[in-house]
Amino acid sequence: MQPIKFENDVLLLIDQLKLPMQEVWVKIKTLEEGAKAIKDMIVRGAPAIGVTAAYTYALAFKNKPFSSDYANLVKETLNSTRPTAVNLFWAVSEMEKVAKFCKKNLYTTLLNHAKKIHADDITMNKKIGANALDLFPKKLKVLTHCNAGSLATGGYGTALGVIYSAFSKNLIEKVWVDETRPFLQGARLTAYELEKAGVPNTLICDNMSASLMAKGEIDLVVVGSDRIAKNGDVANKIGTYAVAVLAQYHKIPFYVAAPSSTIDFNIACGNDIPIEERAKSELGIFNGKQIVYDLDNIYNPGFDVTPNHLVSGIITEEKVHYYPYINSLKVCDS
Questions:
Q1: Contacts of 64 (CB under 8 A, 6+ apart)
Q2: Residues 318, 260 contacting (CB under 8 angstroms)
Q3: What is the pLDDT of residue 103?
Q4: What is the per-residue pLDDT across 191-250, written as a single tens digit (0 to 9) for each?
Q5: pLDDT for res 2
Q6: Higher-confidence residue: 334 or 68?
Q7: Quick check: 127 and 203 in contact, CB under 8 A?
């Protein structure tokens, strides 16, 4: 599945707000359209946000010469969309470096670099999947939370990339899919992806994983990440921390799959990771109708932080990293 395409000077994004019932492609031609698509979660998942930001950065200079003031406007417009996903800031920084030193053919040069970021992301995803194979001694029953598949990346996936790679080697018995409240990325996106890929899966409510773990129905947990601190603390979709606590209690390995661009070596620990607070309406309104008494009395952070001691390993394109992450992640700091 390819959720991001670039054709004839137009960025095409599959509208993840309409999945799985409709497959609608949104056309992005301007900086403002690209930023809105990221902010409104038409595209989501840290790597996919980074790829989208790279293409949007290029489009911003399609008919504009480089100037420091305009470059700052482009950067600020994109960086203000989603504060937790570090791949966004990484991609914008990479594009900015190219723009500053480009002497001619600015748009073409930027576009080629965005395409490279896109292609590199897919390559890294597949390496992540390959690096995880040794974690599967036999066919396993796997739990995943949120969506960290093709739809969350440039293509293939991080956590689901691990699952796809294991499935290709006949190492997946079943995937349990957390619904992932309140935005239902698991129900709407992960189950949809796995069905299309032919991977056996069953959707469960978020509250159900503990009972499945107690019954021996889950052998391994793998999730993605939106930002990893240099000490190995992991920010991911809200509810991930709870899954990690349950996994440790039931002595089930809990792995995080992410490209090295998700590691923020400027962040010492999880306490320093900015956590996005989403709109109250995402929790208090369903199918256009208010379902709570007081719509203002809602706290809706989009992410939580799993402390490093609960993480069995972090799978990157380099290798599987183990605690203490402050040392093992250094190989990704280029």
A1: 70
A2: yes
A3: 82
A4: 999 999 999 999 999 999 999 999 999 999 999 999 999 999 999 999 999 999 999 999
A5: 87
A6: 68
A7: no
For residues 153 and 122, the answer to whether their CB atoms sit within 8 Å is yes
Catalytic residues: 226
Closest CA relative to residue 144, chosen from 212, 214, 52, 229: 212
Separation CA 29–CA 298 (nearest Å)? 35
The angle at the Cα of 252, spanning 246 to 253, to the nearest 5 degrees, equals 110
- Domains (ranges, CATH) in the chain? 4-126 (1.20.120.420), 134-332 (3.40.50.10470)
Distance CA 307, CA 322 (A): 13
Distances from the Cα of 71 to the Cαs of 11, 102, 258, in angstroms?
A: 20, 13, 29
What CA–CA distance (Å, rounded) separates 143 from 147?
A: 12
The closest alpha carbon to 158, from 313, 66, 46, belongs to 46
Whole-angstrom Cα distance, residue 332 to residue 131?
A: 14
The residue whose two tokens read 């001691």 is 309
The answer to whether 62 and 6 are in contact (CB under 8 A) is no
- The tokens for 224 are 């993605």
For residue 192 the two structure tokens come to: 């949809």
Record the tokens describing residue 115, joined without a space: 């395409």
112 is written with which tokens? 């080629």
DSSP three-state, residue 308: helix
